[in-house]
Amino acid sequence: MIISSIEVFPLTLPMLQDFRISSGSVGDKQAGAPHVYVKITDKDGMNGWGEARPSHRWSYETIESVTATINTYFTPALIGKRIDNFSYVHQVMNREIKSGLTVGQPIAKAAIDTALHDLIGQRNKKTIGELWMGPTNSTINLSYLISTRDVKEAVQKATDAKTKGYKGLDVKIGFDPDHDIYMVDAVKEAAPGLFFRVDANQGYTVAQAIYVAKKLEKLGVDVFEQPLIANNLLGHAEIRRKVHIPIALDESIWSPGDLLQAFRLEACDTAVIKLTKMAGLHRAKICGEIAREAGLDLLGGGLTESTLGLAASAHLFNYLQISAPVDLNGPFFLADDPVSEGPVREEGTVFLGDRYGLGCKVSSDKLQNYTVE
Ligand SMILES: [Mg+2]
């Protein structure tokens, strides 16, 4: 298969509500949310789609950097190349954009990687799961995301989620320890019995995290995600020695190498698998497989991608057989989505179906509407 063209569509998608994490807004009802779609066409005229969802409040990548990196560096390096395997694709991209402390510009690389998976699925008339010869089960449970500091609103959302049949909650904390604990307590009481994941997005110091972890343990929270800044693996190991609640690492693990370092330092019980931070399906799958073999638990998440990114992630989590409800809530924040046909989403569940590749049809009208210069 020879790559003939790579088209990049920087988009601002309209949002239904704001989305905040401890480091700030990652999507705004007024301004919309930055997404980048990529279309790769081969010499036979077949194509595949991929998505990047950069947020400068979550990592250093932006809509501008993703667009420029693909157009200026990846496209000239990949056009005309025969793509036989994904290790080679990543070698080419990693030669163009070097690593920093960990993989360089993984979100831009993920858009190319997922578009190629989609294209190869189309060419071979197989779903992603079939390409990987994975399990055939194609239903994914979602967790409901709560990202507000207003306790009343959080309780209302938790109650709604339970009523709608969600199996898990993901609550964003990492702002103020006592207020965070107060909110988690209220939410837990409003929606008992659900899988309960709290995510501090690097918001605490070691002392704050230990204080919060001990309270969360008493409240029966299932897992405490990324309490400290990403590069503080020793701090996470210290927390693990002092508390019993499982500690999950998300922003600390971008690559198989990061995962191995975290494992060697005993810094986590659980690894959060996300295809965009891990530069796409190929390397996220490797991370998931290593974590599984190492005896770690797995959680699945996304960076609020639209339905295209959700579909790619859902294929991955289905393959990895992640049992805890996964955090793939991007489409629920959006007022409109460039995917016109794709996996069926009902409240709390995604049904992948048997369409080839990622299983999504992208609307060119919507792309045109939301493309920004
Ligand atoms: Mg997280």
What's the quick description here?
It holds the Pfam family MR_MLE_N. This protein is an alpha/beta fold. The chain has 13 helices and 17 strands.
Compute the average pLDDT.
Answer: 94
Order of helices and strands: EEEEEHHHHEEHEHEHEHEHEHEHHEEEEH
Q: Which CATH class of the largest domain applies here?
A: Alpha Beta
Strand content: 15-25%
Counted up, domains total 2
Measured on Cα atoms, how large is the radius of gyration?
A: 20 Å
Tell me the number of helical segments per DSSP (H or I, 4 or more residues long).
13
Family: Belongs to the mandelate racemase/muconate lactonizing enzyme family.
Pfam family, one: MR_MLE_N
InterPro entries: Enolase-like_C_sf, Enolase-like_N, Enolase_C-like, Mandelate_racemase_C, Mandelate_racemase_N_dom
Protein name: Enolase C-terminal domain-like protein
Task: Note down, in words, how this protein is organized.
This protein is of the alpha/beta class. It has helices spanning 63-78, 86-96, 106-124, 128-131, 151-163, 177-190, 206-219, 233-242, 256-264, 281-293, 307-320, 330-333, 364-370, and strands spanning 3-13, 19-21, 24-27, 33-42, 47-52, 139-141, 143-146, 168-172, 195-199, 223-225, 247-249, 270-273, 297-300, 339-341, 344-346, 349-351, 361-362. α1 (63-78) crosses α3 (106-124). The longest helix has 19 residues, at 106-124. The chain has two domains: 3-126 and 364-370, Enolase-like, N-terminal domain (Enolase-like, domain 1, 2-Layer Sandwich); 131-362, Alpha-Beta Barrel (TIM Barrel), CATH 3.20.20. Bound molecules: magnesium ion. Magnesium ion binds at residues 199, 201, 225-226, 250, 272, 301.
